[in-house]
Design brief:
22% strand; 5-stranded mixed sheet; Glutaredoxin; alpha/beta
Length: 128
């Protein structure tokens, strides 16, 4: 029984480590709060599948997050249609909004931008 508990713990730690190393993940309030509280660089992208701007932003963000200089930024993708409490708390009124945090505090935000250079500059507000 003890070895089963140890094995389960190891699997849980591995899964958490995998999540924490990924640059982009679905929004999770607990993980978001912990990441912000730890002062780590983080951004929240408010995405809607029906939004053409969101669909244009997604591959640009994915490519930017693959760069070495932005690897420390955790990006949570929040569903614009269902994350109503989060939208209220961050005062977000439009899909395709990105809110960036540095040291636990909002450092930048953008709505509707799909230009790689401007999105890169936005994400850099989390680390510089």
């Amino acid at each position: 029984m003890k070895s089963l508990a140890i094995a389960a713990w190891a699997v849980a730690l591995t899964a958490f480590a995998t999540l924490s190393l990924s640059a982009e993940m679905p929004f999770n309030q607990t993980q978001f709060d912990a990441t912000r509280a730890a002062g780590k660089p983080v951004a929240v992208v408010f995405h809607a599948d029906w939004c053409p701007t969101c669909r244009a932003q997604a591959p640009v963000l994915k490519q930017l997050l693959e760069s070495k200089e932005l690897e420390s930024v955790t990006v949570f993708v929040a569903n614009f249609d269902t994350e109503n409490a989060l939208k209220r708390s961050l005062r977000v009124t439009q899909q395709s909004t990105i809110v960036v945090f540095k040291d636990g505090k909002e450092s930048a935000r953008s709505t509707g931008d799909t230009q790689p250079d401007r999105l890169s500059a936005l994400l850099h507000h989390a680390i510089s």
